Amino acid sequence: MSTVRIIGTPMDYGANRRGVDMGPSAIRYAGLADELEAAGVDPVDTGDLLVPRAEARDPDADPPTRGDAKFLREIEDVCSRLATDVSETLADGAFPLVLGGDHSVAIGSLNGSADDADVGVIWFDAHADLNTPETSPSGNVHGMPLGAVLGRGVFGQLEWAHAPGVRESSIAYVGLRSIDDRERELVQESEMTAFTMADIDERGITAVVEDALAVATDGTDGVHVSLDLDWLDPKTAPGVGTPVRGGVTYREAHAALETISDRHERDDVVRSMDVVEVNPILDEANETATLAADLTASAFGKRIL
Ligand SMILES: NC(=[NH2+])NCCC[C@H](N)C(=O)O
Ligand SMILES: [Mn+2]
Ligand SMILES: [Mn+2]
């Protein structure tokens, strides 16, 4: 039985709505470990990474921003430690499952996963998260993790952020529907593959995810799956800080992650995953965290029959 190491990363520095730091607890309370056992894997919870409270910062210390990226120094600290944990988990032969936290944690997961490997990426998200401090309209780093790992803009000089093992041509978006104007140009000019909600409407989720898997496995050592809960429609996943209507349904989401695990069972292609942006303060009776736990179980092979 394969070991899945759960790494909680209760960080909310990258988002402008507080509360996403409670995501790891909420997903655990929703029964993640039991769900994973039901899926046939062996979950080992290593607890949460230490994330200093924003309130605890010394007000006389240097200002928290660098360029137009809020809390970048704090995010560097957390993501550097997370990257080490993820790469050590892989070296131990276990599977790193990172619970966010806002999507800036993916800078750490991807740097860890691609530490010693070429890694493809499947990005389930309403958003492209390809901004840099130079292009971001908000300064929120959760809108920048792919810009960071690709070393775009100022991130090219930040070794903790840039992950050379992640190549543009190995990244596939699934479910895009909210892109900033500057980002739209960046996506179009890039070598990334972008499947929008319109592609899912036209072709169906399974065909789209199979194509995304083809992109992310081609010439790589494995795939990182990044699941932002705002990928789903806000009626199904209300507990997120940046909801966008018109997202995937409950069934489409399960079908997508089942498609991933079907392929993984055949070829052992997935090497790491993060589940991010669950905000319990905005949630309704832990519904979004429960969904996060259920979808993760589907990704690891849980089936109806
Ligand atoms: N991971 C997320 N929820 N990202 C939302 C990003 C929103 C917007 N594009 C920004 O840069 O601020
Ligand atoms: Mn995101
Ligand atoms: Mn998003």
UniProtKB/TrEMBL annotation:
- Note the PANTHER family from the entry: ARGINASE
Q: Which GO terms describe its cellular component?
A: cytoplasm
Does the keyword Hydrolase belong to this entry? yes
Which pathway is this protein assigned to? Nitrogen metabolism; urea cycle; L-ornithine and urea from L-arginine: step 1/1
Needed co-factor(s) = Mn(2+)
Give the EC class as a word. hydrolase
The record's catalysed reaction(s) read: L-arginine + H2O = urea + L-ornithine
The record's section on Pfam families has: Arginase
Q: What are the GO BP annotations of this UniProt entry?
A: arginine metabolic process; urea cycle
How the cofactor is bound: the record states: Binds 2 manganese ions per subunit.
Membrane-spanning regions, if any?
Answer: none
- Sites binding Mn(2+) sit at 103, 125, 127, 129, 228, 230
**What is the recorded name of this protein?**
Arginase
Q: Which family does it belong to?
A: Belongs to the arginase family.
Say yes or no: keyword tRNA processing present: no
Q: Identify the EC number(s).
A: 3.5.3.1
What keywords sit in the KW lines? Arginine metabolism, Hydrolase, Manganese, Metal-binding
Q: Which NCBIfam families does the entry mention?
A: rocF_arginase (TIGR01229)
Name the Gene Ontology molecular function terms of this record: arginase activity; manganese ion binding
* Gene it is expressed from: rocF
Family annotation (InterPro entries): Arginase, Ureohydrolase, Ureohydrolase_dom_sf, Ureohydrolase_Mn_BS
